[in-house]
Amino acid sequence: MSRAVVAIVGRPNVGKSTLFNRLIGEERAVVHDMPGTTRDSIDTLVETPEGGIRFIDTAGMRRRAKEAEGAEYYSLVRALQSIDEADAAILVIDATAGVTHQDQRLAERIDAAGSPVVILLNKWELLDAESRADVVDQVDDRLQFLAYAPTLKVSARTGLGVHKLLPALALAIDAYHRRVPTRELNKLIQSAQAAHAAPGSRVLYATQAATDPPTFTLFTSRSLPPTYLRYLERRIREHFGFGPTPLKLRVRRRSA
């Protein structure tokens, strides 16, 4: 994970700057109870046991770019650029507020960028057992398109659970850059089809077309239904240990 770039993103006042300060070990980012205190992205390089990481504390993302004005607009643009340029993202959610519509929109933006992501439910220590169960259900329901991403329950203020973040990022970023052997990939695909055949179609050949994120091209006799693609994605993820990083599967039809 040498010199990885990690963007810390989330709505205003969810605890991004407090987390940023804890990770870098100094009071560089301004921490204040008033929403929107961080007006622009702040970044710094930190040497960790997992390698050098450049953490970017992005401005709180509140409104759509076309609705923001002035300094807030340019802060929002910089935050969006940070997501696109990062090797991974940390999505910070205020657990006391649950998963809001704005959290969903931001998660969708990270997903569209194709970056690995770790979800942090911050302020966890402030919730009782019932509220904690409710927030976990909200993550499963409203962020199901990020089901591959690990969800950590933390307190940026006290440090609870923060020690799990760097190892989770290391796994995600390593998998993001990984390339697998073509022969082993095709052996897996054939095994998956033998166990559960696609209705009216079959995969003739598969290859990894790219990394960052790992992208696979499946040459098929006919189109594959989305449910079968999810099945193959799950088999690829489990077999090669991709864990908390996004995968892309592309289908190319050709005659057998």
Mind explaining what this structure looks like?
The chain has seven helices and nine strands; from the N terminus they run βαββαβαβαβααββαβ. The protein has 256 residues and is an alpha/beta fold. The strands form two sheets. Strands 2-3-1-4-5-6 form a six-stranded mixed sheet, with helices on both faces. The protein has a three-stranded mixed sheet with strand order 7-8-9, with helices on one face. α6 packs across α7. The relative contact order is 0.13. About 5% of the residues have low confidence.
The rounded Rg comes to 20 Å
Task: Enumerate the strands of the largest sheet in spatial order, edge to edge or round the barrel.
Answer: 2-3-1-4-5-6
Order of helices and strands: EHEEHEHEHEHHEEHE
Fraction of helical residues: 25-40%
Index terms:
single chain; 256 residues; alpha/beta; six-stranded mixed β-sheet; 9 strands; globular
